Amino acid sequence: MYQALFVDTWPWWVGGILIGLLVPGFYYFQNTALGVSTGYGNLVKIISRSKLPWLQGEKFADAWGWRVFFIGGMVLGAFVAGRLKGGTFLTREMSLFTEVLNWPFLGSALYFFSGGLFLGLGARLAGGCTSGHSIHGLANLHKSSIIVTIVFLIFGAIAAAFLRVFLLGGGAP
Amino acid sequence: MSRKLFFLASGFYFGFVLSRVGASNYQVIFRMFTAEDLHLAWVILSAIIVANLGMRYLKMKGNLGRGGKPIAIKEKKLGRLSIIGAAIFGIGWGMAGACPGTVLAQIGEGKILALFTFSGMLFGTYLYGYLLARWPKIN
Q1: What is the pTM of this model?
Q2: Cα separation values, B65 from A119, B71, B138, Å
């Protein structure tokens, strides 16, 4: 029982049902759309005390708004999940990436920083991320979210194909 | 329950589920994009279907939230550079093996490299605000 709940990866449908419920749950209880990436704007405002006009808008009027609590909760939830699963806490591993590539830590750090930069800039230009567009938007059959999600997936597949060929070896690892 | 406490608790729930279903595992995401392992694609697809059914149910009940307050569903509008932004985001998703939500789960699990993905995201978000201040047309 413990093994199935806290150690083994859950079947996809368990995760799908539990994640999907967040969308109507957010609307029912808080009249709010599910979304994560906008909260990074809150974090930037808090950390940098930036005077950028974009961060002075209505959306970020309360820098310590609900999005910061949502983000903090996500880190905590995964922390508890990780501790219940066991294993060392701080680790430099990133599964396949660090198993196959023997890069110096700084190289990997720079690589993931660049990936993050694309995620941050791209999410703001696109108006949302996987949760806001691909789950919330698609569930509500919003045309903009359908278009954006298709582009997400195409370019994610292109990036992964590039990695597969040039970094991680052509064949199955 | 106060609004912030609600979101702290639902964030905890979301992070826990993402971690348990393997969404915070680099190779699960990588292999979704190379179509070697569709576990995560099924997670996302079933989440969309469940969310859609839930929204239909709310609509059937008159689109009223708790306490009888009307629910307002907003469609995200596309900006001039939204498609390009989506392409940039897709490349980041495939590269980092994480999205803005799952990177938080990776951090919670103690993956040090995820802190760099996270810092990059903060920087990218700042960069957007900076570019927007110079060229308001990018929105």
Answers
A1: 0.96
A2: 32, 6, 35
